[in-house]
Amino acid sequence: MSEINNKKGIKLSNKFIIFMGIVIIFLGFLILFKDYFKSKKMMIYENMYFTLTDQPTYNESSTEEVEELDNDIITNELGEDVFIDKDYYIGRIEIPNIHLVKGFCDKYSKWNDVKNNVAVMSGASYPDINNGNFILAAHAGTAWNSYFGQLYKLNIGDYAYVYYDGYKYSYKLVNIYDVDKTGYVKIYRNRNINALTLITCTQNNMKKKQTVYIFELTEKSINN
């Protein structure tokens, strides 16, 4: 009788060992491929988000779409290749000293807001308007959409470039000042000169202050 019990015990032990081996192998498989599954899940969520919100996206495995994207590769002021979606943006701003290259949408576009982009303010004139003021605003800080997060590093005399409607507009920084964050921004500029105004939250005082950067046009040239 004891011999039979021993055999059953051995059989049970073998089954238990096999079962635990399968569990360990399965857990090892999950650990090894955890990052892969996570990246796939994020890709699916991202594509769903872009589809539902009509934002531009692309498929890396599609040769046609990659070739299409190549048409939107621009060379910035520092000689670096940067992707700017020309079907989504109507122009771009570059500030070489802080390595900023960012497109901007039409000011009547639903994507023209600081949550998604550098925003063209409603009262702004486009760069081709004589003595106009092209006003852009964006978040400071370190979030993914903090496109003006490095403006505080600029100094008087630094340059910014705006590419719009086939022309390159070169602007020189002439004034920097802070204003209280009240919902209104007073802009002090020479109204006889084309201006570029950049507005963002003030470094180290983002809840109460905004900083205004006034640039003046120095040159307009055809963008080849």
Structure overview:
This protein is of the alpha+beta class. The protein has 3 helices and 10 strands; from the N terminus they run αααββββββββββ. The strands form 2 sheets. Strands 4-3-7-8-10-9-6-5 form an 8-stranded mixed beta sheet, with no helix packed on it. A two-stranded antiparallel sheet has the order 1-2. Strand 3 (91-95) and strand 4 (100-104) form a beta hairpin. The longest helix is centred in the first third of the chain and has 31 residues, at 2-32. It is elongated, with a radius of gyration of 28 Å. The relative contact order is 0.10.
List the helices and strands and how they pair.
Layout: H1 2-32, H2 34-53, H3 63-70, E1 73-75, E2 81-83, E3 91-95, E4 100-104, E5 119-120, E6 133-137, E7 159-164, E8 167-180, E9 195-201, E10 209-222
Parallel strand pairs: 6-9
Antiparallel strand pairs: 1-2, 3-4, 3-7, 5-6, 7-8, 8-10, 9-10
- Report the sheet with the most strands, covering strand number, pairing sense and barrel closure: 8 strands, mixed
Distance from first to last alpha carbon: 96 Å
Q: Which geometry do the CA atoms define?
A: elongated
Order of helices and strands: HHHEEEEEEEEEE
**Helical segment tally?**
3
Structural class: alpha+beta
**What is the number of strand segments?**
10
The portion of residues forming beta strands comes to: 25-35%
Computed Rg: 28 Å
Question: What would the average pLDDT be, to the nearest integer?
Answer: 78
Strand order of the largest sheet: 4-3-7-8-10-9-6-5
Uncertain segments = 38-70
